[in-house]
């Protein structure tokens, strides 16, 4: 048995053996006595293992472990690993982590579409809308349908203008399609500004209700910034207005997902907002594509600032004509009197 510091400590803590009944005397042979007398005088007599405490027994068992076989360890260290290609299969990488080698018998029928099915299942679980209230889901989709309708109508008008012959298309003339295009795009910009303002106002309602706690200015700021960004887009040219609203919808979606993660909104609000934002973003892209297809065929659509300027110019021209008429009438009256 190896002598270590732990074993000596355990041996010292062991009390002397309890009194036991006298065992039958046994006198070893002379050669045994002479051979073991020196070791017996120096080694204490250990009591049986059942009389030791659990800690003392563990220390003694560890001390009884034999020496390490250095030769075997050296042989294992310099041993070269041999490859076994026959054990590598298409499914060997998914074996149990506790097995040393793969099972040589690979399954004959391997489902190659299993990974694809798993990916589709993951996507389906990620975009699961089962937790979204049915009323909110249906009304939310109905709310973005007018926005999508304006985009589809813009693309259709652009198609009619591009495919018109001598000013006439399949169902609409080029002039009618252009007038309808001028009418639709401001509607889309105005409706997009309304949607942005509504999404910001949702955070005010959540703060009033105390959903997820009261957060004060942090949540109120979301409802204030959204309409502040949406309102100026009404005065921009239609292309710049749509691009600005696209960026605003994207940033607001990121803010809403962060709010859902922090518990400021219901857990389903993030995926719900993703679906609606995706539809609105796709609608804006469609409108920009349709507008780009007819950029060289129609005049620039005047924005709100241009329309206000035209109204002002028209009013000034009408006033000047009226003043000229009044002056001419006075001159005629003066000539009659003379």
Automatic annotation (TrEMBL):
The keyword DNA damage does not apply. InterPro entries: DUF3429. The keyword Transmembrane applies. Keywords: Membrane, Transmembrane, Transmembrane helix. It comes from the Eukaryota. The chain crosses the membrane at residues 136-156, 189-210, 222-255, 267-289. This is Uncharacterized protein. It comes from Amniculicola lignicola CBS 123094.
